[in-house]
Prior knowledge:
- With about 475 residues, this protein is α/β, with parallel strands linked by helices.
- About 40% of the residues lie in helices and about 20% in strands.
- The chain is built from 16 helices and 18 strands.
- It has helices at about 35-55, 60-75, 80-95, 95-110, 115-125, 160-170, 185-200, 200-205, 215-225, 235-240, 275-285, 310-325, 335-350, 400, 415-430, 465-475; strands at about 1-5, 15-25, 25-35, 135, 140-145, 150-155, 175-180, 205-210, 230, 250-255, 260-265, 295-300, 355-360, 370, 385-390, 410-415, 435, 460-465.
- The strands form four sheets. It has a seven-stranded mixed beta sheet with strand order 13-14-15-12-11-16-17, with helices on both faces.
- Helix 1 runs parallel beside helix 9 (about 215-225) and helix 3 runs antiparallel to helix 7.
- The model has no long low-confidence stretch (mean pLDDT about 95).
Amino acid sequence: MVDIFNVPTNIRFTDFGExxxxxxxxxxxxxxxxxxxxxIQKIILEIKQNRLEYLSQLPISNIITIIDQAITxxxxxxxxxxxxxxxxxxxxxxxxxxxxxxxxxxxIRLFRKKELFRFVENELPQPAILDDFxxxxxxGMVKAFGPEATFHVFSGNIPGLQIWSLIMTTLVKSASLxxxxxxxxxxxxxxxxxxxxxxxxxxxxxxxxxxxxxxxxLERTATEDTEATIVYGSNKTVQSxxxxxxxxxxxxHYGYKISFSMIGKEALTADLYTQTIKQAxxxxxIYDQQSCLSTQAIFVENHGxxxxxxxxxxxxxxxxxxxxxxxxxxxxxxxxxxINRERTKYQLENTNGVSVQVFTSTQNTDWTVVYHASPGxxxxxxxxxxxxFQIDHLEDVNQYLKPYQVYLQSCAMAVSPTRLFxxxxxxxxxxxxxxxxxxxxxxxxxxxxxxxHFNLLDLLHFIDVEPNAEQMSEKYDPDVE
Length: 481
């Protein structure tokens, strides 16, 4: 029996459901509680009380040390929670086991002590203002406060990603109630179990539980009884939760976004183009484009050693190679149908004289590359389906992106140093909020301004004690002259 929930030690449940997985001649029963509104109320009261008595008093440096100790355990290949995650997550998510192993190993290292200090100091030059009042340069004193409790609605598309939000709110000394998706309910539970091994009192400020999205009674209680709500997932998920959050409370959301790549002619020289192709495919293939950070379209500049149509063909060949190495997840009928509809659409455009070519896996939907001889922009139905647009100059890309700017997020670039910041500035003008190296787009760093905003500051409120209040207080010191 594997529990896919983790709650403070004083909380008890009597009614459970389970999901069963059979692998390697073993049966795994994943147990979860059947929740009532009163359960959510009790959990929130408990984590708030635990936070008041312990987390709110814990220095930020201690919090970072505890998280670092948990991460250190996860960097050990023999650590039981890590072994369980690597065994069960491929069965739960249907992602390739080697991909999960590699990406989790990379991801958890983002939260080591040195990275967390950089992360906090990136937004709070004086992290100690989370602990006590500290002087301001302008005079007076200031202290920062996080929410008493935060309700997280986690998405289930990327294993492990949930701990980003969990760690972020813990750093601002907020208790956490995390609702996981049954698509991936395991990793954050295992991580909070690790926290409990190191510091049970801190773990008692966290609760991670799955339930079916759209259970309004539970979600309304969670949003009303906490002080902040953070939603990850589809726009539909965001729209379902938004009306439940009182106007007086913090609501942060990270819905559907599109990311893309730009390949300059200088990355298509004789000695570089092979590696450029491999890097471009990494950004498409990892987790089958399920992340908002995954590339859905690639702009390829003319005048390299190889032409954009050759790039498209080589991307297709590399996706075929990638499939033999790391299988794409199985698709639902709806997902396969969406890919086939898009393939048919562009194949018909080709027969009608439009300059489009479609390269596909045979007899299945494992991968698709749509080449466009003219620049434009389009999203993809995901699952290793990518558009390649020929363009004369990358500097002209904004005119094709602007109609989609509300959805755009990250851009992976392969360009020379003389162009990098000019192009980045240009993209920033229309709302793109992150530029990465080609091949690294799915691996955002903790200090990244998610969707262009702060990670910690958006959760904090500050209290200022003005100099005149300090000066007046001196008058009431009985020992003053």
